[in-house]
Structure formats: C-alpha cells, structure tokens
Amino acid sequence: MGVLDGYRVVDLSIAMAGPLAAMRLGDLGADVVKVEPVAGEWQRHAPAGGATGNRVNASFLSLNRNKRSLAVNLKSDAGREIVHRLAATADVFLQNYRPGVAERLGMDYDTISALNPAIVYVSMSGYGESGPYLSRPGQDLLLQAMSGAMLSTGRDGDPPAPAGTYAIDAITAYSAFEGALAALLHRERTGEGQRVSVNMLDAAIAVQMQELSVFTVGKVPQRRGTEPHGHTYIRAPYGVFATKDGYLALGMPRLDGLAVALDLPELAAMDGDADGHTRRDEITALVARRLPERTTAEWLEICARHDLWAGPVYGYADLVADPQVKHNGSFVTYDHPTEGTVTTPGFPYGLSASPPGVRMGAPLVGEHTRELLDELGYPAERTAELVAEGVLACEG
After folding, report:
1. In b/e form, how buried is each residue of 29-42, taking b as 16+ CB within 10 angstroms?
2. Which ranges form a coiled coil (predicted)?
3. DSSP state of 362
4. Of 105, 305, 310, 381, which has the maximum CB count within 10 A?
5. Could you tell me the CA-to-CA distances from 164 to 63, 144, 150, 316, 385 in Å, in that order?
6. What is the pLDDT of residue 48?
7. Phi/psi of residue 31, each to 5°?
8. Over residues 367-380, mean pLDDT
C-alpha cells in the first residue's frame, strides 16, 4: 500500500516539471489522472533525443508512469463539465498553464476550490503569477541562464555552459511535489484546502541557498578565474581534469595530502582554506599539468590510498553498469503494453512502511477515458456520444 493510496490527483500539466511532480505523487500510491487534449499532451509529440518509441516515446514514458489518461477537449462545455466533476472527487489539482489559460478554461483556483473547498491546488509557472515577467516563456535553459548559476563554473572569458540535465525543471518539480505534500498534511490537521504556488525562478534561487548567501551575506563576488573551475565559491582544486586516458573529478582534496599523492611539494606549503581561494588558478594549473601522467584508474587508486575526494567521470553507459547503481536498484524495469520491457530511473527516496512502486506504465492517449467517466457516473451511451462529438478520445 502506498502512502498516498486513496488520494486522487488531477494532473493538467505538460512538458517536464508538472508531469514529474504528479508522477512522484503517483509513485507514492495516488490515483493520478492525466487530463490531456484529445490529440495527446505536447510531450507525446516532442520526443527528447529523437527516441520515438512504438506508440509512447521515451520522454513521455519517463514522466507519466502510474497515471491514467483522460483525453478531453477542455474548450467544450461538456469537456469542462467532465473535469469539474473529476476535480470534485480529487485531493490535488495540478496545472502549469501559461498565464490566463486556466481562467479561460475554467480550471483556475477560484473555480476549482468553489467546487471542492478541500482541494490542494498546485499552480506552476515560469516567473510567478504576476509581475513584469508574466508573459516570458518558462523554459529550463532560459531559467538556468537567468539564475546566475552558469557564472559559478568554468573559466573567465569562456561562454557560460548549461547543466547536463534539465536542472530547473527538476528542481521546480520537486518544489511542487514538496508543496503538495505539505498542503495535504495541513489539510489532514485542519481540513482546509489551499493554493500552492510554485515558479521556476524562485525554485532556481532557493536551491542556491549557499552560493547566494555567500554573495548577499558574505559580500564575496562571483568571480571566474583564468583556469577552468567547478564552482567559484569552492576552493581549488575543484573540477574535472584530464588524465592519461580520460578524466578525473577532484572535489576540494586536502592540499597536504594532494601534495604527497601527486608529488607536488609546493602544495604542502599552502593553506587550503585561504590559498585554495586566493591562489585558485595557480593550484588548478599545477594539478592539471600533473594528472595527464597517469591513467584515471591509477589516480583513483592513489587518491583512495591518501583519503582524497576523487571520482570517475561517467557517461550514461558507465552509469547504468555501475555496481553501486545496480545494488541500489536506481533503475526500475517493467513491462509496458506497447513499448515492451522498459528500464527507466526509479525513485529518489525509500520508505520502509509504504515504498514507492510502479503500478502501471505511461498511458496511451485516452486509455482510461471510458473507465474514468464510468466512475464519474456517465452512462456508456453518453460517453459514446461525447467521443463521436470529439469532446473525448478513447483508446480502443
């Protein structure tokens, strides 16, 4: 039994952040109903990396397990009535529409909370629900750029580089997930529903609590040096370095220990906390010149012997084959009715009494439309009429 078993989530979100937040609720046992257009949600038609799949592409499949699909035209009165009846039975209602769209469709907080005062209504946006940036596109790369984080890494004069993951989408998703759980706990204690507002800009700022506090409280400027560096506010050496046959990641190892391990006695005379910042470029250059003399495996063994923080630089093929990843069960494998046996990332947490799990793979468009309308009390004849009118789409 999942910890959210018996709770219903209405998911009107698209792309990554909203669907990921809703999927995490589904992983914990909630009945998540994905409300999507009769032609299917946008992500079904925009496969990341070109991984199209058979009938469900990899990106949609990865973000929509443990959900049922209701394919409905919300621009029709009959379609809105169906979702309103669904919302009246729900515990969480989640949407990430562009500003003004929820109101036009009758899916805004005032409308939904009037139907269900106990609802936890999660509204997700790019920059907030008011203010000068209301109409700006809330896209991951654009928020990474605006967050300031890109200028915390790399070398002065080099172009800022984005993260190798959809970092702001993921951070926003977990913010929404956390907010929904907090609001549900509040409701358990008080019986009161509420609105949860999450935006990508605030999420990107909040996750940099250390870096931005160093800047705002410590008054330390954000400064990239002449040598590549992993983070402006972490002492050297910190980053990825070339070896004889690949790369090695070094995470601020002790300078006295590193001096012995790399046979660089000049490091032993330095103070890690002071010189690690003020002489950052010098230290980085010394280390960068030494590491190409040996292989990554050799350096990893040497660093382990001297208790220094070092690690390999993986590609995805290395990651999925790693023994610790296998031991942790970091990926889940299950059978999908159209995509066959699939393996995707699993769960970022464990619960001893009510663990998350995969109950179903990502649905086909409208796969559960008839089932859901039956639960809402619609006669089969009326459902068939709505399908014929284009209000609904059904699989099979």
Report:
1. bbbbbbbbbbebbe
2. none
3. P
4. 310
5. 18, 11, 12, 12, 47
6. 87
7. -85, 100
8. 98
The counts of H helices and E strands in the chain are 18, 12
Q: Is 169 a catalytic residue?
A: yes
Residue of 101, 76, 89 lying closest to 12 (CA atoms): 101
pLDDT digits (tens, 9 = 90+) for 6-65: 999 999 999 999 999 999 999 999 999 999 999 999 999 988 899 999 999 999 999 999
Provide the mean pLDDT of the chain: 96
Report the C-alpha gap between 116 and 109 in whole angstroms: 10
Q: With a threshold of 0.90, does the pTM exceed it?
A: yes
Please determine, for residue 1, whether its predicted confidence score (pLDDT) is greater than 90: no
Both tokens assigned to 374? 């039956």
Burial of residue 317 (number of CB atoms within 10 Å: 0-12, 13-18, 19+): exposed
Mean pLDDT within 256-273: 96
Q: What is the pLDDT of residues 172-225, one digit of tens each?
A: 999 999 999 999 999 999 999 999 999 999 999 999 999 999 999 999 999 999
Whether 250 contacts 241, CB under 8 Å: yes
Give the up-direction half-sphere exposure of residue 104: CA atoms within 13 A in the CB hemisphere. 6
Q: Helix, strand or coil for residue 269?
A: coil
CA distances for 93 relative to 6, 80, 348, angstroms: 15, 14, 23
- Token pair for residue 191? 């019986």
Please tell me the predicted confidence (pLDDT) of residue 396: 72
Contact call for residues 174 and 157 (beta carbons, < 8 A): no
Q: What does the alpha-carbon distance between residue 105 and residue 35 come to, in Å, rounded to a whole number?
A: 13
Rounded distance between C-alpha atoms, residue 342 and residue 387, angstroms: 31
Bridge pairing between strands 247-251 and 238-242: antiparallel
Longest Cα–Cα distance in the chain:
84
pLDDT exceeding 90 applies to what percent of the chain?
A: 98
**Rounded mean pLDDT of 341-346?**
96
pLDDT of res. 47: 85
Question: 125 to each of 98, 183, 311, how far by Cα in Å?
Answer: 7, 18, 37
Q: Which residues pair with 123 in a beta bridge?
A: 95, 197
Q: Which two tokens mark 45?
A: 């038609």
